[in-house]
Inverse folding.
């Protein structure tokens, strides 16, 4: 490990463990109005009328007619309304906001509002939906020839479920409008996303809108787009009433009505010649929910992952995101990747088994190598360390011995083990960093020699502020306490881009490193200095064409090999995870403890995605909307997971670092499902796979 | 405070006005009689979920008579306000009950939740109540004016309906000491902690000198109430293990007819299959 990797206590550790950190719901609400959202009770309907109860003095109901700016929440596109105008598109679609000084009275009034609906026919099945929000695809080689020459052709369909982020802190915002300035603060990942959206919805000039992040209790992607929606609603209410407005979602509201991972369906047809896969044709349908929100970008990432980590000469991938009348699907750690990798990993294992080869060997024989073309005909510019990583994991979990021992089991309890290989493309897709984000960072040194980091990236519990502080302190040769980082506030920090896409350390961290290096060179004692750095696109990249899906989709990749061992109780369907092993290449870890913690947490979250976390929308309604009903793994559900870091340095990242945050969520589910499959001897094709599914498969 | 969900009455951190804490059983019974609106409150782990702002509670956690664990020749007597943690630590607690208590919720809830509350909330998913049903335990129900001992199997009248008079309290649970060592227990939850049972099964097979003296099966989480079907279990009572083996399929068929689970977080079919698998395993593990 490099010196930078040596672990330090996280800089937010004490404030959080001592309860001093102030989250948005902790602010003294004196003088504020409480806001509660009136939501649609139907999955698709026209709102005919809204009948309000007698409103006491100081209480108000605000709907789309009183929005000062555009009734649009700008996310990627502009189809999400702040408040529905006529047609509501999912159960929970916001119709208006009721505000007032007493929380209970607001709740009472909300319950008294009568909405008259004309109920329309909703669509819940993405595969049948006639509305395709987005369609992407690409081709490499010639699949027609490959299929024509194939020894065997395999066809299968895969399905992945909806997943809820379940961050500990629910979404919440406070908006204050005074003297023509709008301040909105709360829990979020991307202050500048919120900034653009609030300026549009309020009609205020960008310079009159300030967005500030409060201490944030987890995000996992769930606070990438949704905070823009809530901020617009709170800001509109603050604008109309002239009073500060606080909207903090209850857990049930948050689970039911904020974004989730896209459920997906994936059909794969594969050609095999001489025991090796020569072609794959992949068609995926992602369930976008009612509005587009982050879906185009999620789908892009999913489509690009077609073919997984393998060099498949002939590849044709098509992905569609279809509209359904359910809560909008959005960003979630992995961002479109887990769905596609699940399908490809399962497909590869199934083909291997059919050919009588161990899936691990079969996968190793297909793994991409340095210099190989990527799925989108870009290039693997850097070493692909997967063979070594898969070997490390195989050793650690005793894969080959167990595989043999578990080959043919009878009896009540049956074991299985399996391994997956995945990547996560580090940073924004294609030329997003260069053409859309254009990150800017600043370092400001004061007269006393303290350096302050000015970036818009947020620490949401993942340790980012510690990582940034380490990078800058190291480069400047300053002790830790001479480097300052505060919660970002768009009035003070430049737009260094959102905290998403596993980009923050790799892209923003590198800009900070360069800024610090320059500051050190130009250091003048006793003077205030400001150093600015702007994003520079790596020149080795083959420019990505987003219309054709051709070129380097990512500058580099983070890699993971994950093995899972399970024991299945064939009487009850109970699935016990006996062990989970992961080798992760995230480049140089900027802090070993933080990196390992992220890998462990992400691995556990991916095991949850595999065998526990299930959030069904039955006729558009999500019922398991609480911690007791939406089960996520507890500390006793999994034994200590065995995580190791395999470092392939990325020359363009700070000290060799690349993307870390999302990677561990990608590989757990396919390994878990294949392990269950190996245990019970039944071919499986969906995640999550629950005890009930086991029993259904066996009896 | 981290997290935004506040229970309506947690805001003031004060119990609703009119709530009272009883210092003795007599006082508790007197209060119960005089204030029929007071809701008995032991650990509050069920009641807090509802968090009714308008409710007034009768706190039982400080009633010494309800916190005791004692034993006589026939029964172990568990005070109704005993917590699961208390039971887990007590040398009096039989294995089947300890096993069940150890799988309830997680330590924090086990430190607060009581058996009286578990029985009193009337849930078919109550894990300790399932054990009391399987072991044919008795409840000591007391009011200011009366006292009765009722088999717990008669206590549940229907969905959330209890044979409990408005002035009565569950004061003790009387669990038989003998004949419950040979047990079978399986809780099926969605995960290994903090999981409400999706199916739970408890079985007792008391075999003396090769003759089955008692056979009892109890099924939790499958309908309105915990299911115990004495008339089916009696098929095997008084039989030798060999005779029981001959009756095995008939016994299983009888349950197969009788058990009609409802769907909940899991399907009725799943519940049914698991019940039948566990019932069969219960017999087979007893060489039947
Ligand atoms: C996170 C969580 C996990 C849980 N997991 C489980 C689990 O795994 N298994 C399980 O079985 N339960 C579980 N529960 C439910 C609950 O903890 C148990 O039912 C517990 O036994 C309730 O006891 P209590 O003392 O807290 O009851 P309380 O909430 O105080 O009371 C419950 C009911 O019983 C009545 N009552 C209480 N005492 C008496 C009495 N002496 N006489 C008459 N009526 C009385 C009350 O009026 C009320 O109606 C869980 C609850 C939570 C919050």
């Amino acid at each position: 490990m490099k010196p930078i990797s040596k672990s330090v206590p996280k800089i937010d550790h004490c404030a959080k463990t001592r309860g001093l950190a102030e989250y948005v719901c902790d602010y003294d609400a004196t003088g504020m109005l409480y806001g509660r959202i009136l939501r649609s009770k139907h999955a698709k309907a026209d709102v005919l009328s809204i009948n309000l109860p007698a409103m006491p003095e100081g209480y108000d109901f605000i709907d789309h007619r009183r929005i000062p700016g555009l009734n649009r929440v700008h996310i990627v596109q502009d189809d999400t309304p702040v408040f529905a105008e006529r047609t509501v598109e999912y159960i929970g679609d916001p119709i208006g906001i009721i505000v007032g000084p007493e929380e209970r009275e607001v709740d009472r009034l909300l319950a008294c509002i009568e909405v008259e609906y004309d109920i329309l026919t909703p669509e819940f099945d993405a595969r049948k939906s006639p509305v395709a929000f987005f369609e992407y695809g690409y081709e490499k080689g010639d699949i027609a020839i490959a299929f024509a020459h194939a020894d065997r052709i395999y066809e299968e369909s895969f399905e992945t479920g909806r997943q809820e982020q379940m961050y500990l802190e629910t979404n919440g915002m406070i908006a204050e409008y005074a003297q023509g300035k709008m301040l909105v603060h709360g829990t979020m990942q991307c202050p500048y996303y919120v900034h653009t959206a609030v300026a549009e919805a309020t009609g205020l000039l960008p310079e009159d809108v300030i967005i500030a992040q409060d201490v944030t209790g987890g995000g996992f992607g769930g606070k990438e787009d949704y905070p823009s929606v809530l901020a617009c609603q709170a800001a509109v209410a603050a604008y109309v009433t002239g009073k500060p407005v606080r909207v903090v979602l209850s857990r049930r509201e948050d689970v039911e009505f904020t974004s989730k991972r896209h459920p997906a369906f994936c059909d794969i047809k594969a050609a095999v010649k001489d025991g090796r896969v020569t072609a794959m044709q992949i068609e995926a349908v992602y369930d976008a929910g009612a509005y587009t929100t982050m879906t185009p970008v999620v789908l892009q990432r999913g489509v690009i992952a077609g073919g997984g980590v393998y060099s498949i000469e002939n590849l044709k991938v098509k992905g569609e995101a279809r509209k359904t009348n359910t809560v909008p699907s959005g960003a979630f750690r992995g961002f479109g990747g887990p769905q596609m990798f699940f399908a490809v990993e399962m497909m590869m294992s199934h083909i291997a088994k059919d050919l009588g080869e161990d899936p691990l060997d079969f996968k190793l024989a297909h793994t991409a190598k340095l210099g190989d073309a990527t799925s989108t005909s870009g290039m693997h510019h850097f070493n692909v360390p997967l063979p070594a990583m898969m070997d490390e994991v195989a050793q650690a979990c005793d894969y080959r011995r167990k595989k043999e021992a578990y080959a043919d089991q009878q009896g009540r309890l049956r074991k299985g083990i399996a391994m997956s290989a995945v990547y996560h493309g580090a940073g924004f897709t294609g030329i997003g960093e260069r053409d859309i984000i254009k990150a800017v960072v600043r370092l400001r040194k004061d007269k006393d020699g303290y350096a302050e980091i000015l970036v818009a990236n947020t620490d949401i519990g993942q340790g980012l502020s510690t990582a940034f502080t380490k990078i800058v302190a190291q480069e400047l040769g300053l002790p830790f306490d001479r480097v300052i980082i505060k919660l970002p506030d768009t009035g003070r920090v430049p737009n260094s881009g959102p905290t998403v896409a596993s980009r923050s350390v790799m892209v923003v961290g590198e800009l900070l490193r360069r800024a610090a290096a320059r500051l050190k060179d130009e250091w003048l004692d006793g003077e205030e200095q400001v150093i600015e750095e702007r994003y520079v696109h790596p020149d080795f990249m083959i420019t990505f064409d987003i219309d054709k899906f051709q070129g380097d989709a990512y500058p580099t990749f983070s890699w993971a090999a994950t093995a899972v061992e399970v024991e299945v109780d064939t009487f009850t369907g109970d699935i016990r995870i006996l062990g989970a092993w992961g080798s992760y290449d995230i480049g140089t870890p900027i802090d070993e403890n933080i990196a390992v913690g992220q890998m462990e947490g992400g691995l556990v979250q991916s095991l949850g995605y595999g065998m526990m976390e299930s959030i069904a929308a039955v006729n558009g309604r999500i019922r398991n909307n609480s911690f007791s009903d939406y089960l996520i793994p507890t500390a006793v559900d999994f034994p200590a997971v065995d995580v190791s870091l395999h470092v392939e340095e990325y020359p363009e990242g700070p000290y060799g670092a690349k993307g870390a945050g999302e990677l561990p969520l990608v590989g757990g589910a396919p390994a878990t499902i294949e392990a269950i499959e190996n245990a019970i001897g039944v071919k499986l094709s969906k995640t999550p796979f629950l005890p009930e599914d086991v029993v259904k498969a066996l009896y | 405070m981290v997290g935004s969900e506040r229970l309506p009455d947690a805001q003031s951190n004060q119990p609703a006005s009119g709530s009272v804490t009883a210092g003795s059983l007599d006082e508790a019974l007197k209060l119960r009689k005089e204030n029929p609106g007071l809701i008995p409150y032991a650990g509050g782990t069920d009641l807090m979920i509802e968090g009714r702002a308008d409710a007034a509670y009768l706190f039982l956690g400080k009633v010494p008579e309800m916190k005791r664990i004692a034993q006589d020749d026939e029964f172990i007597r568990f005070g109704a306000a005993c917590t699961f943690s208390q039971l887990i630590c007590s040398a009096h607690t039989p294995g089947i009950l300890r096993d069940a208590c150890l799988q309830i919720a997680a330590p924090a809830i086990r430190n607060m939740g009581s058996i009286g509350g578990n029985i009193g909330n009337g849930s078919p998913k109550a894990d300790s109540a399932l054990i009391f049903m399987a072991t044919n335990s008795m409840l000591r129900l007391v009011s200011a004016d009366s006292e009765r001992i009722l088999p717990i199997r008669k206590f549940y009248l229907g969905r959330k309906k209890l044979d409990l008079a408005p002035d009565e309290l569950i004061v003790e649970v009387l669990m038989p000491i003998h004949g419950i060592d040979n047990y079978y227990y399986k809780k099926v939850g969605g995960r290994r902690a903090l999981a409400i049972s999706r199916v739970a099964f408890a079985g007792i097979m008391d075999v003396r000198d090769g003759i089955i003296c008692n056979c009892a099966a109890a099924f939790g989480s499958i309908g309105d109430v915990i299911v115990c079907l004495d008339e089916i279990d009696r098929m095997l009572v008084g039989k030798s293990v060999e005779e029981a083996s001959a009756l095995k399929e008939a016994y299983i068929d009888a349950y197969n007819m009788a058990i009609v689970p409802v769907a909940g977080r899991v399907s009725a079919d799943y519940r049914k299959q698991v019940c039948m698998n566990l019932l069969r395993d219960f017999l087979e593990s007893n060489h039947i």
